[in-house]
Design a protein that fits this description.
Helix content: 40-55%
Strand order of the largest sheet: 3-2-1-4-5
Structural class: alpha/beta
CATH architecture: 3-Layer(aba) Sandwich
Order of helices and strands: HEHEHEHHEHEHHHH
CATH superfamily: HUPs
Shape: globular
CATH class: Alpha Beta
Bound molecules: zinc ion
Radius of gyration: 17 Å
Number of helices: 10
Strand content: 5-15%
Number of strands: 5
Length: about 230
Amino acid sequence: MNDSLQAKSALVVFSGGQDSTTCLYWAINNFNAVRTLTFDYGQRHRIELECAKQIAELARVPNEVLSIGTFAELGGNALTGNQEVEVQKEKSNRENLPNTFVPGRNLILLSFAAARAWQLEIENIVTGVCQTDYSGYPDCRKNTIEALQLALNLGMERQFVLHTPLMWLDKAQTVMMAKDLGALEALSFSHTCYNGIFPPCGSCQACHLRNKGFCEAGVIDPLIERAKKVT
Ligand code: ZN
């Protein structure tokens, strides 16, 4: 990280999940001023918004919630509608997208984030997208993000940089990065479970992947530790 970037501020696209919490601490470690932006897109798990708020308070950064209810009107899927989340046994490909897929989700969210960043005169935008285990989401890929950055800069006459610190990490590496950044306490408040419950269900694909990452990293998941205390 060079000195000129250090002096700048960053806007973190923040869901209150494991990845964006790690990104928040990455941003805090790399920029002087950090803000978070959380989208209320009609997700059926309102717990996400509460987690985002709690973690932002813990990290002492502003958390702004932007309401974009249009997502729910675009059509049913498991994150905004009433469909059950299907269990993914194998990694999906582009022809077999998981039913948690909201078409163009990251393109839309990052465009909103850039529009907000423009108003705030922030050029650094941080997102937790990851190509390594992108679970069939084509808008998590490096090429997509690079193309979007170019489009945003052309369309808004700014020099936005879309930072993707997790792009090439697997889940275990993300856990180790969170540990190095001092984000473990914040991760105890993060939300991952597709079933939207605390304590997490432990059996959905999201819980499974999270558990696998922590196990492989040799780190005890602070979320599970916190859950034990309240049950
Ligand atoms: Zn779960």
